[in-house]
Automatic annotation (TrEMBL):
Taxonomic superkingdom: Eukaryota
Gene3D superfamilies: Gamma-glutamyl cyclotransferase-like (3.10.490.10)
Gene encoding the protein: 1269344
EC supergroup of this enzyme: lyase
GO molecular function, one term: glutathione specific gamma-glutamylcyclotransferase activity
Compositionally biased spans, kind Basic and acidic residues: 216-226
Name of the protein: glutathione-specific gamma-glutamylcyclotransferase
CDD domains in the record: GGCT_like (cd06661)
Source organism of the structure: Anopheles gambiae
UniProt EC number: 4.3.2.7
Region called Disordered, residue ranges: 204-226
Family: Belongs to the gamma-glutamylcyclotransferase family. ChaC subfamily.
Pfam families listed in its UniProt record: ChaC (PF04752)
Function: Catalyzes the cleavage of glutathione into 5-oxo-L-proline and a Cys-Gly dipeptide. Acts specifically on glutathione, but not on other gamma-glutamyl peptides.
Amino acid sequence: MSEAAHGNRIPQAFEGDEDDQQDIWIFGYGSLVWKADFPFEEKRTGYIKGFLRRFFQNSIDHRGTQDRPGRVVTLVHSDDPESKVWGMGYRIGASEKLQVLSHLDHREKNGYDRHCVKFYPYPPCTAQLNEPQPILLYVATQDNPSFAGLHDTLDEIADQILGSAGQSGKNPEYVYKLAEAMRQLYPGERDDHLFELEQLLLKRECRPEPPTTDGDTSRSEASKEG
């Protein structure tokens, strides 16, 4: 199992989270950022701390096959406890909790496990909560069979992504949609691993480069949906 911000292990999900009558929060840092295929009560922009988003997980279903795996993101421990991974928090109503968790367990069956961390909503909003919240997320830890390793270069990752496709579509589109969501939701925030991989893929596919948001600290209208 990969190291994490609290000690050497990613904190496990709270006991009893499926059985009580409380709402729960789910954190999306990959495709769930732009597409939630489950019912939720509200969504909230924000981040978790102490992690890095990396394309270190093979995908043999959603963005690849057994014969030609694609690459998708997971989280790894950062040496900087203040390092942020921006994403989307979803509040799941108590009545929908079991259904949603069952759906996500099946969706993330290729090596992902549930864990609990702290979610920091941002920006402050008078109509929604602003205090840090316990939140569940799915992490593909280093001991799962589809973990691709920590040491591949971005060029090697791009080589694997190009031409890979699965039941959810072409692998490069996953990268482009995630990068675009980050620019729209969090203009001015950097995710060098994601954006540099996007640039490599765009050049190899001879696509135009997206407009840059470097230095833009304003937030787009899309970021205010939560």
